[in-house]
Amino acid sequence: MSKDNFTTAEEDKMIEEAFADVLNGYINSNHRKKVEIIDRAFKFAKEAHKGVRRRSGEPYIIHPIAVARIASQEIGLGSTSICAALLHDVVEDTDYTVEDIEQHLGKKIAQIVEGLTKISGGIFGPRASSQAENFRKLLLTMSEDIRVVLIKMADRLHNMRTLGSMAPNKQYKIAGETLYIYAPLAHRLGLYAIKTELEDLAFKYEHLEAYNKISSQIAASEQSREQAFEHFSAPIRAKLDEMGLKYTMKARVKSVYSIWNKMETKHIPFEEVYDLYAVRIIFECDDPTVEKSICWQIYGAINDLYKFHPDRTRNWIGNPKANGYQALHLTAMGPDGNWVEVQIRSQQMDEIAEKGFAAHWKYKIGEGDEESELNVWLRTIKDILDNPEPNAIDFLDTLKLNLFASEIVVFTPKGELVTLPNNATVLDLAFALHSQIGCQCIAGKVNHRLVPLSERLKSGDQVEVLTSKSQTPKPEWAEFLVTARAKTHLRKALSRLQQPDINKGKKLFEEFLAANEITDSNQIITKLQGQFKVNNREELYLQLGREEIVLDDAVAKMLKRQSGKDPNSSMLRKIFRIPFKDRNKDANEPAEEVDPIKLINTKEVYSLHYDESGSNFKFADCCTPIPGDNVLGFIDDDGQVVVHSIDCPRALALKASFGSRLLSTRWEMTAGQFLARVLIEGIDRFGILQEIIRTISTNMSLNIRRLNINANDEVFKCELNVLVDDSKVVNDLCSQIKRINGVQRAVRLR
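^ that's the sequence the OP posted. Answer follows.
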């Protein structure tokens, strides 16, 4: 932004007109008329941003005014939110403080501005972990006062509407994070109009060519679409007029992004998107108690005219969505032979559908005892925030899953409704009811049928959770949990159960080091991680405490060499090995002494050589590479070259700790066979195992060393070990096995 010392008279007029639009919209709303405080907030913001311009060149104050207009007229918020929207960038971009705002405009407005300032850095920062932390701040602030995130939505919407003035790389970044976080969050809050516009704008900047093409196709089909709508709606209008209803009926065209999404997922052209538009019927009703019955009367009237699709009726008036959405959806066969979706809703239902919770949030209707589904969701989010993931990225991924998940509604034996993400299990429900119920859950009854904890639930299921006081949480539960709440509570419970063993293992470890006069260091831990194949220090302590591993004299000797305390060994001792056998040399000639540091720093590549007499290397157990794989060498404490796959996690750790002991390597073979593991999955049928064995043994002449096959219902899984010359043979094997009828997958296991 650039700063000027003045604004022109034309700009002053433009600013005043923009603010007058905000004020007039507020005056014409149902909110209490607190014009004076809004005017004070405007003057405060105008003075604070005086002389500052946006990248587009217009005065900066135009942006907060536009955000306030969206918050008021498109979301439906009141005077407190309008003031906070006008001031949302003041603390971040000027010398004014939250205390200054509180002094001039009161504590509540200052608190909301402070909440907006906390998350002003955006969800995506320079590092992934800070992105997750910003997202966490957003949700935490949202759980304190939802107006913060609603104003943030308005801010993001105006930024997207004016994204054209940004550099292309900024456009791509902002569009990406909008689709990733803001659009799903808008959907979760019931802000459908904003969600649709955010998706379309983000899609426009990410895929401009596709956006323009679909937009032109929509425009080209407008006339035929209007004719189809009139033909379909005329008989319905006649019926509704007979019923004496006051209503509006309109065709809502599918958004550009939704059309593109359907074309991509269904792999169909634009011409085959038959649900290009939906018909919406909005009726007037002064008595909320009869709204549902009128919806069903309209449903019956349309049923007299058209045939309905049996699987496409959605009763959102009996069971509203978690974000408060209510409507009755049906799909009817039109006169032209195409299916048409019809949405039936009252004016009040329509307002909630378009504006979400802003239409009936408690600060607008007054404090009440009734708790909406959104409050329940916010409490769940707060519960997760109070017990965050140790890794910020895990936290973000967990929350993202819940934001994108579609919902199901299940019933408890007492008839209580519980909303869960799609694919939720009995165990997810148990944790949703109470963390203790989840920890003690042993099974469930779904529709009076006994089922395991991992049973996936469907909408309408009646579910009873069975518990036992002797039950304890299991680590494998995490494999089928879906909800963030359940995963968080399971992790906490497992941590509590494991802590005594971790403490015991830590004590054993410290005593072992002290007894052998070894100093604790990262190198020592790295060495033990490789020795016992554990991921971190805590897992090492856990296995020690459970006596799954033992620290003995051999380990002590190895660690003393590592720390340089073994007089017979040194990290820098010379290695009496040559990179590969030179067949032209006399076999009795002594091997050349090679300094490891010199060897490593040379530009030569270490050749991995194998023949009947043996090899000049050994394979790492963690990744079992074979010839043809991209590999690197590591000189171990005994002077041997240990070969790892280039992407092996253990090799990554070695790169970080022992970079000077790594070797570039290449395969140089004369003869030899190596063990490769292959996983095969598919649909079980008679004779399929025989075909697999024939392909391996007869067609490819490979030696099978181990084969384990298991069939569950109609699906089979087969793991086998075969001897091969190199990775190309494994790839050919997988390719040939996949041609067998019924085989869905054949991959090499590492």
